Amino acid sequence: MKVVTARTLDEALAALARATSESRLMAGGTDLIVEMESGRTRPDLVVDVGRVAALRWIRVTADGLEVGAGTTCTDLLRSVDALREADILVQAAREVGAVQIQNRATVGGNLGTASPAADLTPVLFALDARVRLRSAGAARELAVDDFVTGYRSTARRIDELIEAIVIPPRAPGERRAFRKVGTRRAQSISKVVVALTLDLGPDRRVRRARIAAGSVAERTVRLSHLEAALERGVAVNAIAAAVARHVASDVRPRDDVRSTAVYRSAVLERLLVRMLSETLS
Amino acid sequence: MKPVFEEAAPVELTLRVNGATRTLRAPPLRRLLDVLREDLALTGTKEGCGEGECGACTVLVDGEAVLSCLVPVCQVSGTEVSTVESTGLASIQQSFLAEGGAQCGICTPGMIVMTKAWIDACRRDGVAPDEDGARLALAGNLCRCTGYGAIVAAALASARGGGAP
User: Fold this and answer.
1) Pairing between strand A130-134 and A161-167?
2) How many helices (H) and strands (E) does chain A have?
3) Which of A190, A253, B112, B122 could form a disulfide with A216 if both were Cys (CB 3.0 to 4.6 A apart)?
4) pLDDT tens track for B43-101
């Protein structure tokens, strides 16, 4: 195995130009070191971008809130801009691991690993975030929903890295919510995680709904049937019925070591009813 | 079998550990935990789970608490690492002794280092240390003897400066 410790973006991109499908990017290492320790991952090349300062920044532009991929959860918790522009992203960062993990785990790593249990990724879905990818020769942007393609798989090409996440400006009537259910206050891998944004018109009707969930499918997913139902119009007293009717079309949680399908379905429905009722009333 | 992260060719690294400059050769992805315990003979830092769940291996890197089982040593070159052996932690250790905040002892070094990080964060943010804050700060550190009451009491005593210097 070869390790390239990059100090600049150009060094990282030059190393990635020689990467294979077995190569891995490493930022905080909180996932990759465990994967290597267990033997599940045996990379031929590790490109260490953990100390590339050009990937670690937060700024507000005309496009919205831009967050460098190397930004840690702790960086988000300390950022006034992040709290103002992306409050539920900060809320989710507070629930990632514990302080020791928050000090190391990055926004780009959480998204790029594409774990179905990732805590930040449902928030990025709900906020309609875009993913800025860069390789030595080119740059491109994808909607986050198109970036995450399956269980631990993404549309990132092997010579690319995530440079930044772009979160569009908040709509005037936009309301947001985030909830995570795990086994303990810290260090828990989600059993169910939900993030949503509802853009409400002056008549309080839902103009646009974005609802995303983690740990309930092989990847982070949008609940598009439920979104469409809300956009067609659901009275506050009919939320529970709408959730019961549409969620099963959107996801079918499975049993695994952390939870059962029955538990996950019940918790997902309860979370959605509670979050939607609070957000709409 | 040797873990894959030990395979890459060793590199020379310099860092400061508990105030002393140390230069060593190690594979770049060797875990900071192993460098501390095996290469530098600082065995105060314990390995609990080895996968980032338990907090036993917590150390400070440039003042920030991290899990040394998840930190590749190449990412700490040029930094200041503080372990439970750091003399700056003596008064917190005294508080843990006075309050009985240790049973089998495996989690204790991580609890002591995390208490230091919590007290520093309270000072930095201008927050008064209280029990809720201590429990939240220590939430990533497991004690399988379940002696949390005395551990939290020790953390609070440390924040009040109760330990002998």
Assistant:
1) antiparallel
2) 12, 14
3) A253
4) 999 999 999 999 999 999 999 999 999 999 999 999 999 999 998 899 999 999 999 99
Nearest chain B residue to A48, by CA? B75
ipTM above 0.90, yes or no: yes
Which among A29, A38, A99 has CB closest to B117? A99
Contact criterion met (CB below 8 Å) for A218 and A204 = no
d(CA B102, CA B151): 7
Contact B67 A48 (CB under 8 A): no
B120: how many CB neighbours lie within 10 A of its CB?
A: 14
For the full predicted model, state whether its pTM sits above 0.90: yes
> Residue A70 corresponds to which tokens in the numbers above?
């190397």
Q: Which two tokens stand for residue A127?
A: 């906020």
Q: Give A199-250 pLDDT, tens digit per residue.
A: 999 888 999 999 999 988 899 999 999 999 999 999 889 999 999 999 988 8
A103/B66 CB distance under 8 A: yes
